[in-house]
């Protein structure tokens, strides 16, 4: 049941962006951030007070759903604020926050749960998320340019009307197509992107496969370090810090990627560093699998996880930047389709991971992941060398090729 709670939380991450991403393009980024984050804070309380597992499992799905807004909307916000040529560094910071967060939180929550019990975790989350919500509400402005234009138009018209100018009646707000457009066009956009846009479909498939490896790899840590090496739950959580170190190394390599991109300035150049980095994944998985035995010191597989963390950071960031460069103002909707596939895979794999490792053995299961990662190495090369042809077949990407603009639907 504990694994089911995690899977449903990740499943909420999958389906939440399908609603929240297009709504942020229709109503603005700020309201979606503010209201979804407030609901995330509120939903911590009933989980902390719950007296049965069914309630916890159901609420965990809702937490994932409302807490998923930053997964896609942050990419949209970056597209709002930075020109395409300069969005790489902000996306790297965003990528670092998302890859550092879970491994850094695991030791803290592991020791807190061991010392105080699991309910204290959700009271702690309530306090931290509540503080973050206040900071968000007080400091985050609207960034979606169509919403800003509508707000400025409304203020100007009201000011002229208050001063008695007849010109106030001639000032029109940008057209609002109403609820019919919202439900027929805006809310269906992520699904249409996923199934009709070659870039969204291919990056979603690749991202799903890569994150499938990530989730399966993460599930091996309690087995290898807990069962084989006899670590406690709290001690096992510390072993994930190797992934943090790897992510930091990957982030430090990002300026090399940026220098190459600024020479070429095409979306395909965003995955240039992924070409060598993708091979870090199979190498690290083979390394980890070979060291999954009591006779090998526990630090050796942790060193393998450092290599894995660096590879994942570079590869995933390259894919996300490729999507951002291709879709501009509609990055959030495209990423919603990508994240749907990624997190559906992430919700399913924890349910089968332990059975796979126990059935195949820790070493052979790790070897299988290594060969899958090696097979997936072909994808960054396809994006890099054939990305132009893929974008030509994408209606939205080809329209935005010369610069970001609104597309009539």
UniProtKB/TrEMBL annotation:
Zinc-finger recorded as keyword: no
Membrane topology qualifier: Multi-pass membrane protein
Location(s) in or outside the cell: Membrane
Gene3D superfamilies to which the protein is assigned, alphabetical: MFS general substrate transporter like domains (1.20.1250.20)
InterPro entries for the chain: MFS, MFS_dom, MFS_trans_sf
Keywords: Membrane, Transmembrane, Transmembrane helix
GO molecular function, one term: transmembrane transporter activity
Xref: PROSITE patterns: MFS
Broad class of where this protein is predominantly found: membrane
Domain Major facilitator superfamily (MFS) profile, chain residue ranges per copy: 1-391
CDD domains given in the database record: MFS_Tpo1_MDR_like
Superkingdom, taxonomy of origin: Eukaryota
Bilayer-spanning residue ranges: 32-50, 120-140, 199-217, 237-257, 269-290, 296-320, 332-352, 364-386
Metal-binding recorded as keyword: no
GO CC entries: plasma membrane
Assigned protein family: Belongs to the major facilitator superfamily.
The name this protein goes by in its record: MFS general substrate transporter
Source organism (scientific name): Corynespora cassiicola Philippines
């Amino acid at each position: 049941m504990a694994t089911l709670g995690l899977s449903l939380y990740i499943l909420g991450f999958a389906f939440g962006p399908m609603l929240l991403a297009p709504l942020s393009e229709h109503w603005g980024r700020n309201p979606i951030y503010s209201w979804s984050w407030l609901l995330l804070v509120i939903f911590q309380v009933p989980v902390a007070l719950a007296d049965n597992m069914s309630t916890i499992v159901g609420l965990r799905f809702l937490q994932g759903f409302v807490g998923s807004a930053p997964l896609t909307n942050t990419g949209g916000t970056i597209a709002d604020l930075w020109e395409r040529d300069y969005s790489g560094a902000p996306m790297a910071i965003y990528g670092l926050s998302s890859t550092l967060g879970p491994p850094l939180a695991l030791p803290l929550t592991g020791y807190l749960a061991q010392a105080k019990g699991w309910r204290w975790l959700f009271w702690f989350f309530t306090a931290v998320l509540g503080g973050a919500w206040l900071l968000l509400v007080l400091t985050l402005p609207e960034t979606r340019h169509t919403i800003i234009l509508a707000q400025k138009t409304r203020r100007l018209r009201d000011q002229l009307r208050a001063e008695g100018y007849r010109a106030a009646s001639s000032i029109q707000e940008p057209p609002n197509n109403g609820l019919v457009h919202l439900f027929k066009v805006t809310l269906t956009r992520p699904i249409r992107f996923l199934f009709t846009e070659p870039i969204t479909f291919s990056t979603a498939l690749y991202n799903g496969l890569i994150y499938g490896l990530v989730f399966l790899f993460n599930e091996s840590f309690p087995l290898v370090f807990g069962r084989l090496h006899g670590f406690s739950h709290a001690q096992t959580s510390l072993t994930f810090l190797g992934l943090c170190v790897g992510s930091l190394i990957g982030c430090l390599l990002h300026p090399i990627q940026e220098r190459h991109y600024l020479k070429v300035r095409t979306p395909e150049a965003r995955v240039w560093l992924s070409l060598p980095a993708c091979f870090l994944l199979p190498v690290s998985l083979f390394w980890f699998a070979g060291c999954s035995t009591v006779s090998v010191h526990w630090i050796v597989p942790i060193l393998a996880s450092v290599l894995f963390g660096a590879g994942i950071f570079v590869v995933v960031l390259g894919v996300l930047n490729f999507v951002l460069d291709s879709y501009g103002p509609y990055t959030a909707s495209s990423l919603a389709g990508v994240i749907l596939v990624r997190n559906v895979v992430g919700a399913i794999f924890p349910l089968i991971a332990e059975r796979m490792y126990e059935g195949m053995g820790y070493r052979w299961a790790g070897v299988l992941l290594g060969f899958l990662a090696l097979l997936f190495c072909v994808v960054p090369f396809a994006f890099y060398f054939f990305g132009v042809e893929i974008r030509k077949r994408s209606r939205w990407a080809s329209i935005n090729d010369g610069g970001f603009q609104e597309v009539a639907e």
